[in-house]
Task: inverse folding
């Protein structure tokens, strides 16, 4: 039992509360401090018996969330009150009516948006997705709901170390899937980077630790390099009379990891490991001219890479981000990214437009709303109104709207439109008007005729061609990327689709009756999974349109019967984690709530996922499927993010046991310089030295470069690492990487 010093805890709580008041002081009007004190007292009293997983008093959490809102996002008193009370309705006896009576309608509405939906969900539905949809319904009225939720998630991620492993995976993946892109979309770059880094820390901890150590190792030499690099720039800017500051910062751990992964390179080959930021103090009127003047000074000393100039001052990003980026070649042969911006631009870049949001309880004369974000919130509202599918389908559409990269294109009259990267001529048509989109037959891009699926590039001038005979088809959904276009196409298809869904539902009902199977949500979910459709309605639609023939439903019954005849017991399909754990304990005894891979084959039916081919030693989790028992996935599996985010209630802890040697299939990609006898040397190491069986080997040699992929059977990650180590010693081999297939 942990000994708790209650007096020390009380002092710590008051210390954190006073820090909150001190930081909030510049934002408070008369009477605000009194309301914040009342909210703190209510929250402290309501949570007094509760503790976090770490053993700390629960009140630390709402206090820390309120601190993030003030210190890192720049929110005001209403948000502080809502942050302090955000868990009260969910976790205690307090009701929303009590909050409204004591703190007003606005606070109650925000807390309603933050309170999770309780109750049992339909089979195949996702609680996370339903809660997220509910929260976004409030977003269109008040953006503070999302901002407080991001602050809440940041504190959860910072304290994730005390949670069990499968909860860490679930919360970290959900964060990466939705909250990091959302923070980016709202301009909260610092928070977005921290969320990404923490995701990596808990999902691929070895990689995270390796990169952090490498960054620390290079700190001294990096600081010395930065000092040498900026000295001539500082001298010149002072001579020209600029008021400025310069700071150098390393790239985030996650962005370095991303570069290593995307380009398949080691840490040492990531050339722009850090950026130099020049921040100017200047008048609003001279901002643009001053930034370009500084750019001129930088490029007088260092040669720029013309392909790496990014001008977000003339055309800010749609989330309000303004900055001038260039990558220049230093005197030591290293590329360095230089960011040039004003203090105002830096505040917006660091804290997002949240800090400048035009709230109803703020002085509207001092705060300018972001039209880009207003437009985005309008799009979210449209998406919410037009979506009648499942919450998971809605989340997919919504994520598509959280685009990182943008293209800037023009109408025939020269009006600028900012579109997501990858947008097509058809997206542009729907951006102009719904009717124009619905009748689009093609476009002229820079006076050249193109099809509706033509992808737009920066600077394109687009003229849409229409015909009254044209109407949207199902295929169009694969052509567009914007949520606006998708929503409008779905609207047009809805009526036709609705009748097909009803027809399909009747056919399925009739077929199940003939086969003496119950028509219920569980059976329908199993059918949906069996026919690999995303939703029940999509399954009905395909049956109604004849894409899935009604006779093939009999194959599902045969599959079900075949599963029943298996000798191994399988866990019945689960709706939540606790019911699964109960079943697992009933099969294995009260002290076991995780799957031991290698020992439990006789107890629980599980298979290794083909999407990532896990082998002993890989970090893994179990996922309860509808038709195939439990599948074991690597935490770095390409599908892990979506599974853990949307269906966290089906995730279970799983670990390898020291077991008898079984062969697992793994893939290696080998790159090297070609020479006579190279393949012979490679196969000799694999077959002779380590007695490893190969399933396949493909080799391609071009202009002296050798590239090969080998699929082979290994016993564990240690076995694979030993093999890679031995292969690396073969003359001519440059790089060996493991790949998923």
Result:
């Amino acid at each position: 039992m942990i000994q708790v010093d209650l007096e020390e805890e009380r002092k710590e709580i008051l210390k954190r509360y006073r820090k909150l008041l001190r930081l909030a002081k510049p934002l408070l009007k008369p009477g605000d401090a009194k309301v914040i004190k009342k909210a703190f007292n209510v929250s402290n009293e309501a949570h007094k018996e509760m503790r976090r997983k770490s053993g700390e008093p629960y009140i630390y959490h709402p206090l820390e969330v309120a601190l993030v809102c003030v210190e890192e996002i720049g929110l005001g008193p209403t948000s502080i009150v809502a942050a302090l009370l955000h868990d009260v309705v969910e976790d205690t006896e307090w009701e929303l009516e009590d909050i409204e009576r004591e703190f007003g309608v606005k606070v109650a509405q925000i807390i309603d948006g933050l309170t999770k939906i309780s109750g049992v969900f339909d089979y195949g539905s996702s609680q996370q997705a339903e809660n997220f949809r509910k929260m976004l319904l409030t977003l269109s009225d008040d953006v503070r709901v999302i901002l407080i939720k991001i602050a809440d998630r940041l504190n959860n991620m910072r304290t994730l170390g005390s949670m069990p492993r499968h909860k860490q995976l679930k919360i970290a993946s959900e964060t990466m899937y939705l909250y990091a892109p959302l923070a980016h979309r709202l301009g909260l770059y610092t928070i977005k980077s921290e969320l990404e880094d923490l995701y990596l820390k808990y999902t691929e901890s070895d990689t995270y630790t390796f990169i952090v150590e490498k960054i620390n190792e290079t700190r001294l030499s990096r600081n010395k390099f930065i000092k040498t690099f900026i000295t001539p720039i500082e001298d010149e800017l002072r001579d020209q009379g600029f008021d400025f500051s310069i700071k150098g910062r390393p790239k985030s751990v996650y962005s370095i990891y991303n570069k290593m992964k995307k380009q398949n390179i080691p840490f040492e080959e990531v050339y722009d490991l850090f950026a130099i930021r020049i921040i100017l103090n200047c008048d609003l009127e001279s901002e643009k001219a001053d930034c370009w003047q500084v750019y001129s000074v930088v490029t007088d000393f260092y040669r720029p890479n013309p392909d790496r100039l990014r001008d977000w001052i003339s055309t800010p990003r749609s989330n309000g981000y303004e900055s001038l980026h260039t990558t220049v070649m230093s005197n030591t042969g290293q590329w360095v990214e230089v960011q040039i911006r004003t203090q105002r631009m830096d505040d917006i870049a660091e804290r997002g437009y949240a800090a400048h949001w035009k709230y109803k309880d703020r002085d509207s004369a001092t705060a300018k709303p972001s039209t880009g974000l207003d437009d985005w919130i309008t799009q979210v509202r449209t998406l919410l109104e037009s979506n009648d599918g499942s919450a998971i389908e809605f989340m997919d559409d919504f994520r598509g709207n959280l685009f990182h990269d943008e293209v800037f294109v023009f109408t025939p009259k020269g009006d600028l439109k900012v579109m997501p990267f990858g947008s097509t001529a058809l997206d542009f048509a729907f951006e102009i008007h719904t009717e124009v989109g619905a009748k689009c037959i093609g476009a002229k891009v820079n006076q050249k005729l193109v099809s509706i699926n033509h992808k737009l590039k920066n600077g394109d001038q687009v003229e849409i061609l229409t015909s009254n005979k044209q109407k949207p088809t199902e295929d169009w959904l694969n052509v567009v990327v914007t949520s606006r276009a998708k929503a409008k196409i779905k609207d047009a298809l809805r009526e036709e689709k609705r009748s097909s869904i009803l027809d399909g539902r009747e056919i399925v009902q009739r077929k199940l009756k003939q086969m003496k199977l119950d028509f219920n949500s569980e059976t329908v979910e199993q059918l949906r999974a069996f026919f690999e459709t995303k939703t029940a309605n999509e399954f009905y639609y395909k049956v109604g349109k004849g894409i899935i023939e009604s006779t093939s439903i009999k194959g599902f019954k045969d599959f079900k019967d075949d599963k029943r005849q298996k000798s191994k017991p399988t866990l019945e399909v689960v709706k939540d984690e606790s019911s699964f754990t109960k079943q697992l304990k009933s099969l294995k005894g009260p002290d076991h709530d995780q799957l031991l891979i290698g020992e439990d084959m006789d107890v629980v039916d599980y298979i290794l996922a083909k999407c990532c081919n896990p082998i002993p030693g890989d970090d893994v989790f179990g996922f309860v499927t509808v038709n195939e028992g439990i599948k074991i996935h690597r935490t770095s599996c390409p599908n892990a993010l979506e599974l853990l985010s949307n269906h966290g209630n089906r995730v279970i802890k799983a670990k390898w046991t020291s077991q008898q040697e079984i062969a697992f299939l793994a893939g290696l990609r080998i790159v090297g310089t070609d020479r006579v006898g190279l393949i012979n040397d490679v196969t000799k190491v694999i077959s002779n030295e380590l007695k490893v069986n190969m399933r396949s080997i493909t080799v391609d040699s071009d202009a002296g470069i050798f590239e090969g992929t080998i699929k082979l059977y290994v016993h564990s990650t240690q076995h694979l690492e030993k093999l890679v180590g031995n292969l690396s010693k073969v003359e001519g081999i440059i790089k060996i990487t493991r790949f998923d297939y």
In short: The longest strand covers residues 664-673.
